[in-house]
Amino acid sequence: MKYMEEVKANFLNKEKYLAEYATKSSSAIRLVEEKEDYRPSYFHDIDRIIHSYSYTRYLDKTQVFTRTNNDHVSKRITHVQLVSKIARTIGRALNLNEDLIEAIALGHDIGHTPLGHEGEALLNEISKRELNEYFAHNIQSVRHLMEVENNGRGLNLTIQVLDGIMCHNGEMLNNVYKPIHKSKEEFQEDLRLAYKDLKKVSRKHPMTIEGCVVRISDVIGYIGRDIEDAIMIGKIKRSDLPKEISAVLGDNNKDIVNNIINDIIENSFNKPYIKMSKKVYEALFNLKKFNYEHIYKYSLTSEKKAYYKEGMNKLFYEYLNDITKHNEDSIIFKIFLDNQVDRYIDNTCDKRKVIDFIAGMTDELFLSEVQRILKKKIEN
Fold this sequence. Notes:
The protein has 380 residues and is mainly α. The chain is 59% helix and 1% strand. The protein has a two-stranded antiparallel ribbon.
């Protein structure tokens, strides 16, 4: 390109004005070194994520509620886009690296299973039983982007993006998020340990302040929107929200998002950390508890949970048997293994291949496969 150097300079121009604690593109580290084009590394990572097949599958993955017969209820893609927008709003207000924020946000739930957290819990049971390893969507997101995507070649994303995804866990709420410096080797060790000691890794903060922004934005992105979805399908009423919480945060998604964002900006401006006030943190903590007790606990009936558990277990053993017997008519070969390169096939045990395949399924594919193997249909 004739004007390559000028184009590069245009892409990097805004970094001249980033805050002192922001992460510059010059700090980006890839697991495998490569020559960058005119796009800064984190901007390039956004492109790799958004063009991946696993990103496309967000369109048919559960956020909280599965098969509601209501087109307005959030899917996983809705949540991911909300997290990205919320995080970039905070990032721009604090003069942080929006490219890094967007890459982490768009990739943070790539490893989520069909059926949302219910599916994750079922696959975790299988993984612990069969591999003596934990399964968690944040770790699977990193694994998928490193080892499974791009036909088993991985996307070679920067460790700053991968670490932000690994440490994004919005289930672990904190008042202050302060980045922890990590080397490439320390990131790889954290990832390795996560399969055996998930809680220890989940408590760790990201290595960049941008990763910290995405971590709290994950909570902001789901907490109010899940309430709106639950109200829409009749799980709760708006009047059920505790008054002491709504007095601080509001009783609708718009106010909840705005109030938390404004509080974070007020308490984090020109600081090397991301912080909420005590009042907002306590209200958010209690709202999260309310959601678990009144929404998430009842997202599926006990009958549906039992049905899906039986189906997932039967599918796991059927696919595993298909691999063992090299049944190339099986769906696991036709739409997954036949497309993977030798590196993935040779370096991945059969049980892990099955877990990778099930984790990557859309709701529609998983539910149709469960219906096939159980030969019956559960009504909504």
